[in-house]
Structure formats: structure tokens, C-alpha cells
Amino acid sequence: MVGVSASLPSPFDLAVADLPIPDGGGSYRRAQLATWLYRRGARSYAEMTDLPEAWRTTLAQRYRLDPFDRVERFPSADGSVRYLLTLPDGQRTEAVYMPYDDRKTVCVSSMVGCPAGCAFCATGALGFGRNLTRGEIVAQLLAVAWGEGFAPREIRNVVLMGMGEALLNYDAAVGAVRTMIDPEALAMSPRRITLSTVGLPSRIRKLADEGLPLVLAVSLHAPDEETRRRIIPTAHAAPIAEIISSLHHWQATGGRRVTIEYTMLDGVNDSLQQARALAGLLVGLRAHVNLIPFNPWPQSGFRTSPRARIDAFEAVLERAAVSVSVRFSRGRDAGGACGQLSLRGAAGKATPEAGPRP
Ligand code: SF4
User: Fold this and answer.
1) How many whole angstroms separate alpha carbon 130 and alpha carbon 141?
2) Ligand 1 pocket test: which of 123, 197, 230 has the largest number of ligand atoms within 8 Å of its C-beta?
3) Which atom of ligand 1 sits closest to the CA of residue 123?
4) What is the C-alpha separation between 355 and 91, in angstroms, rounded?
5) Can you spell out the DSSP letters for 67-92?
6) What residues flank ligand 1, with Cβ below 6 Å?
7) According to the model, what pLDDT value does residue 356 have?
8) pLDDT over threshold 60, residue 5
9) CB of 300 closer than 8 Å to CB of 260
10) pLDDT at residue number 2
11) How far is the CA of 337 from the centre of ligand 1 (A)?
């Protein structure tokens, strides 16, 4: 962007109620700007022809509309598209567009890389780069809408399941959700927004107390401490019992059914005994279990469980009256499936920009 500093904030960092308006302008002006940003998906202030020119000039000097220096698009054969997004400081993050018959879904990131370091996740192997701002999270939706050629409000579902642990970037992630559900911004139903976490009990309780009727997805991946700590190095800070207790709090405060994410790793967490233990953990909780066949990536050291074992694991849960399904990820061939996001460039090579884990 010629003449615009890379360090400027973006208007997407602000709630609609806080958007700057010119002297003497009222809520009408604010609504006009919000319409251009979120309803029409303007890509430049110059497009906003019904705004006074002096205001547009001021906005352009103070707020960078597109917070990404470079947007690269990697389509998958199944119709999903991975977006590789370069930020002004050179760091990179990713979003994934997943079109379904009746709805447009976008998976967004909350960080560059991730500090959780899950052993089966390519993002975890990158380490932690930095937190994204509220605007950088929201703008991923705009980048996808611009890239695919539809209005931002056509996005029906958002999953905060890309790079990063959203609850470790709490204010930005919750702020971004508030923009998504704001009737003057993206006007989404909170019930169509899923926030995924590796399981941070105190943050789950805090989120419950926000009263946002989101879908909460918890990456459990193992029913016992030993296995879980083997595949999620940070799990020692959050015992499984505390995570389950925080999910009961989530539901007691009006939260909806939770989703339990469980990546199926051959010979690691896929025994029938572990299936029975998982069912035992979920007694009394309204939960749906997603069994996710592991999506391979170079040097992961894991294999996905054989289909017969996944079916047997699922059957144990069904017999225990646990709601369960097997979920195959989209975008595998473009490096955009669950656990595969690794800043892979055009040559299919991982190019980590992130630094060491904190
Ligand atoms: S699975 Fe999620 S929490 Fe774990 S390393 Fe990957 S992005 Fe981070």
C-alpha cells in the first residue's frame, strides 16, 4: 500500500461502535462505513464513494484497510482453499475456505504458529510466532471473501481452529467473535461459530461467563493423562479432570453441547480400553465426539488408525450412548486439513517464520 505505514491498525481491530467518524458525523456515518467494510466488502477507501473525501483520506492515513501484505491461494481438489497470509512484519498465518452445498465455512487462525506444541500437529511443530490482533483474525474472513468473490456476510460458519490456541489470545479472539456476531458487522449467528481450544480450564470458565452462545470444541485426543501428555506437551498444566469440570461449568452457565475433538493415532490413543475410558469421562456431559483420522504431514512420526479400529472405537462410544461421528478433514492435498497448517509455500515446502516456544 503506497504511502501507508505497515504498522497502522486496521479498522477491523475496532468494534463498529468504536469506528472513527468525522467531526459532526453521527451514527449514520458510522453505519455507512460499517456497510462498506462488512456488507459490501470494500477493498479500498476509494471505493467508498458516498463518504466525504476528506474523511476517506483521514481513514487511509490512520487505518490500513487490508492488513495483509500478500495473500496466496492454494486450492484443493475437494473445493476447499488454503490461504497463506503474509503480515506486515513478515510473519505468516493461514485460513481455510471450505464451501459446502448450502453454506460457506471459513477456518481462521488466532496466532502465527502455536505454543501448545501438539505432537501430531504441523502447526505445533512450527513453534510460536506471535498473537494475531482482533483485526487480523477478522480480516481473514474478508481476505477469503475478496479472494473467492463473494460478500463477507455470505460466510455462514466460522471455526477458530486454524493456527494457534485461541484462548491464549483471549481478548483478540473474543473481540473478533464479537465483530462476527455484531448485527452492524458480519451479523453471524454465534451458534455458527466454533471456538476450539486444547483445553484451558480457567479460560473455558471465563469464556462461559461471557455468555456468548458459541460452540466450544475441546481437543482432548486422549482419555488418560499419560497418553495426553505424550501427545500434548502442555497438557500437564491442565489435568483432564479439570478440563471436564470446566465443561460442566460451561454447560451449567447456558453453554451448549460441547464438541470433543479426538485425532485417531495408530497405536497411541485408539484402543477399545481408551474408548471406554473416554465414554466414562463424558458421563453427564452433553457432548459430541468427532473422531478425526490423523492427517499426515512430513516427519510427523504418526500414522492414522486403520479404518476398522476407528469403526470399533466409534462403536464402543455408541454403545455407551455417546454421540459420535467420524470426521474426515477437507483440504488434505493442499495442506489445509486439521493439523496440517504449516505455512507451506507454493513449492509445498514448510517455511516456518515462527520463533521458539515460550
Ligand atoms: S492442535 Fe491446535 S493447539 Fe495443538 S499445536 Fe496444533 S494448533 Fe496448536
Assistant:
1) 19
2) 123
3) 6
4) 10
5) --SEEEEEE-TTS-EEEEEE-TTS-E
6) 114, 116-118, 121, 123-124, 163-165, 198, 219, 339
7) 31
8) no
9) no
10) 36
11) 12
What's the CA gap between 309 and 264, in Å, rounded? 9
For the entire predicted model, the pTM comes to 0.91
Tell me the C-alpha to C-alpha distance, in Å, between residue 291 and each of 80, 104, 313. 20, 23, 9
Query: How many Å apart are CA 220 and CA 289, to the nearest integer?
Result: 10
Strands 258-264, 287-293: pairing is parallel
- Taking a C-beta distance cutoff of 8 angstroms, is the pair 164, 132 a contact? yes
Give me ligand 1 centre to Cα 166, in Å: 10
Q: Which pLDDT score is estimated for 221?
A: 96
pLDDT band for 336, please (50, 70, 90 cuts): low
Could you identify the atom of ligand 1 that is nearest to the CA of residue 117?
A: 5
- C-alpha distances out from residue 100 to 126, 155, 337, Å: 30, 11, 15
Cell readout for 269 is 490413543
Nearest ligand 1 atom to alpha carbon 122: 6
**DSSP single-letter state for residue 133:** P
Longest dimension (CA), the chain: 68
Q: Cβ-count burial of 178 within 10 angstroms (0-12 exposed, 13-18 middle, 19+ buried)?
A: middle
Here the cell at position 24 is 459532526
Q: Please tell me the predicted confidence (pLDDT) of residue 342.
A: 66
DSSP H stretches of helix in the chain? 27-34, 53-62, 122-126, 134-148, 170-181, 201-210, 225-231, 240-252, 272-281, 307-319
> Grid coordinates standing for 68?
495483509
Q: How far is the CA of 119 from the centre of ligand 1 (A)?
A: 9
The pLDDT of residue 212 is above 60: yes
Cell of 215: 460452540
The structural domains of the chain, ordered by start, are 28-65 (no CATH), 70-334 (3.20.20.70)
CA distance 101 to 157: 13
